Amino acid sequence: MAIEKTDKIWHNGKLIPWDEATIHVMSHVIHYGSSVFEGIRCYALPTGPAIFRAQEHIERLVNSAKVYRIDLDFTREEIVKGMVETIAHNAVWPCYIRPIVLRGYGEAGVNPFNSPTEIYIINYPWGKYLGGESEGCDVCVSSWTRLAPNTLPAMAKAGANYMNSQLMKMEAIVNGYAEGIALDIHGFVSEGSGENLFIVHHDKLITPPLGNSVLPGITRDSILQIARDLNIPILEQMIPREMLYIADEAFFTGTAAEVTAKQTARQRVAGFPYPETSLTAKVADSRLPNFTCDETEVLACQQFAANHSDLQLLQDGRCGLLDRSLLNLSHRCCPRGFSKSPRLLVLSMDESCIGQSHESQDVPQIRLLIVVLGGRSTRAIRTSPRRDH
Predict the structure, then answer these.
(1) pLDDT of residue 248
(2) Fold topology of 8-124
(3) Which one, of 255, 296, 329, 210, lies nearest residue 99 by Cα?
(4) Can 81 be counted among the known catalytic residues?
(5) Do the beta carbons of residue 325 and residue 354 sit within 8 Å?
(6) 138-287+376-383: same fold as 8-124?
(7) At CA 110, angle to CA 107 and CA 116, rounded to 5?
(8) Where do the domains of the chain lie?
(9) Measuring CA to CA, how many Å separate 96 from each of 3, 26, 92?
(10) Taking a C-beta distance cutoff of 8 angstroms, is the pair 374, 222 a contact?
(11) Tell me: the pLDDT tens digits for 65-109?
């Protein structure tokens, strides 16, 4: 899919024109793959743009940088604020967000310590990653093995790791498939080239543990939480390859792929969506209550762009980072209430709101309240015999 240009890109704390976001050909990252990055979705809600689990994504970015000994000059909160600033300025949503940390132009050689750290944040429109709303897409088991433990760290989302993903993706494409599923070095199921994998067997939701060279996916975590909320039994366990062929259902999860479902391998059904009664459908279509605020309490997009620097990013109460009194206040504006799920983020532009009782008549107006929901996109994966044996 072609990249659609936007106006500005965030670079080390400043917005610069798209065409000026360039690096030197001798930058360390070009020769040695020294970058860590994130892929994040921003959705368009009735109340305005909403970034899906912004804090968790940037926490993973920071952790990836720690693994590769990349010192960051910006805090997690500052990077999140940079995403908000970029989206607000470009006024493009829904969109895909790409924060990337890289080693820039410094010294030649493998040693990265004397090359400066650069941080960029890009946002641009990006549609569906795998197939359409209902069309199928073929998948195969890749001949390429996922990264072995103690080689390249699978828990870090690093640019170098995705050379392995490119081999999987290219093999799948040249053999007529849309995606490949990799096994780990022991022959157990790992993940797709850019997605985590779930299967359903005997009404249980099963996914490989992180020890199977699996990236700790943010959407993966959301699906696990949704399953717990729906009382669906969950197993994080090693999955032998043959389970892919006898599983009742299976689906990919990822920020780009969202929830991409497939029929069972043994059915070999082409281009047919999974039944609405399936467990996959139940998980993928699980939605939190709709949140509605009075128009007087929702900031217009123009005001949002002008005042985004005042945003305070808060985490839902399950993680203990949100003042419980704000839950009462938000209940006043959103009478349907709050979910307990950690897949929610709340953006409030008025810190003075915190601590006020929802029964008070003097509660300051909430200038912006955004509840972040995940994507609902569901698509079938068409499976057929491999052509790459």
Answers:
(1) 87
(2) D-amino Acid Aminotransferase; Chain A, domain 1 (3.30.470)
(3) 255
(4) no
(5) yes
(6) no
(7) 40
(8) 8-124, 138-287+376-383, 295-371
(9) 11, 28, 9
(10) yes
(11) 999 999 999 999 999 999 999 999 999 999 999 999 999 999 999
Using one digit for the tens of pLDDT, what is the confidence trace for 198-219?
Answer: 999 999 999 999 999 999 999 9
CB contact set of 24 (below 8 Å; sequence gap of 6+)? 104, 105
Bridge partners (DSSP) listed for residue 43: 50
The yes-or-no verdict on residue 57 having pLDDT over 70 is: yes
CATH of 138-287+376-383, one of 3.10.450.50, 3.20.10.10, 3.40.50.2300, 3.50.50.60: 3.20.10.10
Of 284, 286, 228, nearest to 260 by C-alpha is 284
Give the phi and the psi of residue 182 in degrees, each rounded to 5.
Answer: -95, 150
Pairing of the two strands 196-201 and 249-254: antiparallel
Rounded (5°) CA angle 147-152-155: 85
Measuring CA to CA, which residue among 151, 269, 280, 271 is closest to residue 213? 151
Helix or strand holding residue 141 (H, E): strand 138-145
In this prediction, residue 31 carries a pLDDT of 97
Q: Which of 8, 157, 169, 262 is catalytic?
A: 157
Q: What is the pLDDT of residues 153-182, one digit of tens each?
A: 999 999 999 999 999 999 999 998 888 999
Is there a contact between 291 and 371 (Cβ–Cβ < 8 Å)?
Answer: yes
Q: What are the tokens at 217?
A: 């996916």
Q: What is the pLDDT of residues 291-344, one digit of tens each?
A: 333 332 223 333 433 444 433 333 332 222 223 333 333 333 333 333 333 222
**CA angle in degrees (0–180, nearest 5) for 171-177-182:** 55
